Amino acid sequence: MIIRPIAHKDLDALACIARESGPGFTSLVDDREFLTAKIQHSIDSFNRDVVEPGDEGYLFVLEDPDTGDILGTTGIEASVGLDSPLYHYHKSQVVHHSRELGLFKRVDVLNMCNHYTGCSEICTLYLRPQFRRPGAGKLLSKVRFLFMAQHPERFADTIIAEMRGVSSDRGESPFWNWLRQHFVDLEFAQVTQLVGAGNNGFIAELMPKYPLYTHLLSPEAQAVIGEVHDKTRPALKMLEAEGFRHKGYVDLFDAGPTVEAERDQIRSVARSSECTVQVVQADTPVLQHGGDRLLIANTQVAGFRATLTERAIHHPQPGILQVPADLARALDLEDGARARCVRLAAASNKTQGDASSTGDASQAQPQQELRYAL
Which Gene Ontology MF annotations are present (predicted)? Predict the structure, then answer.
């Protein structure tokens, strides 16, 4: 499996992903003109000289090099909320207190805000169900942090992820059902398509501008505030392990949580290291016993390539990464080139034949492999 920047030849696969992901996945819209423009914007972003984050959007695909199949997507928006506002609700509390009457009441409220304007956002992570395999979701999620670590000038200090909130298989959101009943008479699928296409002017025009007292919402709507879609839960756990935390900000439409972390404090960013490549033959003795599970990437931008492998050996001192020749070619790495890597799991115990011996939950419990997250 190889991660690379998206290209126009991937349009058909991207259109399939836009259909498969369904309502609530606002990063992609099932519209070929929109998707073509998104691909071109990504290509332009990868080819742009950048000294500080702007409106760049980086979209990657996961490809099976043997078949050419596109297994999934993952992306980063360099700076959100600049061209059009990025709205959230912030969950907080207000206190109503009358000293004279001896009455005290603490209530939860939701306030609309633009708190994350200018932050970078990881997004568009989707692993196609027919291609689900151990490590694929982890690669799609973590590769973005390796790219950030190598090119920090392209991204903000704060990184956010908007997690998909609770919705049914029919594309109905309990939270939106309440808002629709009282404020905006649009189907959830219509709303997410409008937002995904950048048409969010209706938010300022129709959404309630005053705090929402949560106890006035329906019980169904209250129950999903800050909760994630079942299929997004593994992705949230993975981000939490990287250091992301929820600080009370939720999506305007499905009330899914937005999590955040400081870029340089993200586990895979902080623990990654740049090293010098030593290309070796596959039958080199040092590679025969298997190495640690490593996420490896070259240091290019437009020519970025990355993969997850146990076929390479990282020597932190003196900063050497030994890579078999065929893998080096796939990653566009030459002997003496620079690469970046991060260790994901200790070397497997080959003698036990038990996936759990790797310490990798995606191997021991492949059914938990994440499928998608906003």
Answer: arginine N-succinyltransferase activity
